[in-house]
Amino acid sequence: MPTFVIHEHNAKNLHWDFRLESGGVLRSWAIPKQPTNNTDVKRLAIQVADHAKDYANFQGEITEGYGKGTVKIWDKGSYKLESKSKDKIVFHLQGKRLKGKWVLVKANFKDKKTGKVNDKNWLLFRIS
After folding, report:
1. pTM value?
2. Which pLDDT value is given to residue 77?
3. Which residue in 79, 76, 90, 72 sits closest to 15, CA to CA?
4. Within its chain, how far is the Cα of 104 from the centroid?
5. How far apart are CA 13 and CA 32, in angstroms?
6. Any idea where the domains of the chain sit in the sequence?
7. What is the spatial distance between Cα 1 and Cα 76, in angstroms, rounded to a whole number?
8. What sign has the CA pseudo-torsion 92, 94, 96, 100?
9. Residues 97, 94: Cα–Cα separation, whole Å
């Protein structure tokens, strides 16, 4: 089964990087608030650049450039993909902290300044 990992990244702002192994890379989303198993809570997940698969094991200090700060593995495990479309991914997580059926769904939030929809915004939440 493919791997998922969540990195706690204490950079300019503390956030969690959620990563799903897919197509030989880690598809990645930055989550401003800590993920939770609570089915009543949805978290903003901002899609960021894919990372190399071996980054799933990275912990340590990024000393220069974008992302400068401390990175540690917050949760890690495997996942089973249930369905995937361009705007929705449904999967089952089996990690140490997070378990169950989850979804990533595109969010059609409009930018307050431009009025345009940012296609990098998703919502992450547990559905069962």
Report:
1. 0.93
2. 98
3. 72
4. 9
5. 8
6. 3-126
7. 13
8. positive
9. 8
- Measured at the CA of 70, the angle between CA 65 and CA 71, to 5 degrees, comes to 105
User: What's residue 65's pLDDT?
Assistant: 84
What are the tokens at 111? 């930018």
* Dist CA 124 CA 98 (whole Å): 12
Distance CA 105, CA 111 (A): 18
Q: What do you get for the CA distance between the two ends of the chain, in Å?
A: 20
Extract long-range pairs of 20-29: CB within 8 Å, 24+ residues apart. 20/79, 20/89, 20/91, 21/53, 21/56, 22/81, 24/53, 25/50, 25/51, 25/52, 25/53, 26/50, 26/51, 26/52, 26/53, 26/55, 26/56, 29/104, 29/122, 29/124
For the stretch 47-104, pLDDT in tens is 999 999 999 999 999 998 878 999 999 999 999 999 999 999 999 999 999 999 999 9
41 DSSP 8-state letter: -
pLDDT tens digits, residue range 7-62? 999 999 999 999 999 999 999 999 999 999 999 999 999 999 999 999 999 999 99
